[in-house]
Amino acid sequence: MYIVLLSGGSGKRLWPLSNDLCSKQYIKLMNYEDGSPGSGEKCSMLQRVYGQLKEAGLSRNTIICASSAQVELIESQLCEEAEVAVEPMRRNTFPAVMLSCAYLLSEKGASPDDVVAFLPVDPYTDGAFFQRIVRLGEYLEGREQTIGLLGGVPTYPSTKYGYIIPEREDGELIRVAGFREKPDEEAARGLVEAGALWNCGVFCFRLSMAAQWLEKYGVRTDYAGLAADYEKLPGQSFDYEILEHWDQIAALRYDGLWKDLGTWNTLTEEMPENSIGDVTWDDTCSNSHAINVLGIPMVVMGAENMVIAASHDGILVADKHQSSYIKKCLGQLEETSLYEERRWGTIKTIDRDEDEGIRSITKRIKVVAGKEMPYHRHLKHTETITVLSGMGKLVLEGIEVDLMAGATVSIAAGKAHAVRALGSDLRLIEVSLGDTEGDEVGIAEG
Fold first, then answer.
1. pTM score, whole prediction
2. The CATH number of the domain covering residues in 344-441
3. Contacts of 381 (CB under 8 A, 6+ apart)
């Protein structure tokens, strides 16, 4: 059995910590499952669910489907353990699912008879959840045209989740009659009373089924070919494109811990502390959470049922319930991402300015010990780097230059260069002068 983690979404519902470069599934606000390696450290949703798959013995046959912009971040967080099926562009879950199937068949050596399970990276659950996925896969091995789902037993009539509507039970499996997306409270109550299950976002089928779904689009079915033909696939969700029209769907009941942590409201419910970062509360606050990654003090007074989040990209002050609708407001904002995590370190933009027609950008950069940024050049802007701490090497046009605290080096436009950290993390201030838009070009071999 194979597992695919769908991790290509933009995840803006956790703004201002999430953005196009660092989606919600990569923000380190979670705790590892109790008893697992890394317990006590903060982790991302991706790290937590991948750790659970590892504990369940499923990580060897797990791949991640994500956009090319997210590959470095995934490799950084998972120490380059996971394989990534790279989307050439963001489309939706149907193209992502088809591309993942092509990757498994042509790159991973899977058989068309093998079963694959797809799941999102943001469920908050425990080890029993993954054992039920394995059980679901075992049922589908003998059912060539059946799609299997995992349905959570509701603990209350939620209006935040979609529902699987049962038709009849066939032993442990449930034949599915249909679906209902995020009903109002009265309808949710009726669905729960009728035995409907929460849709956990897990679906499972035999790899051979992907070819018949791709046939009508006239695309190649190998990984490289399908990536080249990606735009020919409809930008639809797998639910809309396949599930809503398929007549052989079965669900397996899961009666355990499960929660979708896609919003600030649900995420803060699972935070063991009410604040992260430099936050001071007065004694009039209640049921509120604050996350401050700015490195400057935050004082919160009189907050009730609030979530406050401050990052380099902006500040959110919201009622917890209302925070679920943040995407409506973000359409009015200019998209800027001031913090990036790469496989070799981090980049934090601390100032942008333009004076007498000259543009400047100041960044704080950390290169992790033993890592090296890619060898590259800029054609339209110059850079000056000042070392704050640590030791390293600047490779400039093939010549190595020692870097140590206090050293300053200017790099002219057109000069190929890279920076490597030695012994400990290397921290730099980088000032760019000139047009930096899309100017990291001509990446060369070092």
1. 0.79
2. 2.60.120.10
3. 359, 413, 432, 433, 434, 435, 436, 439
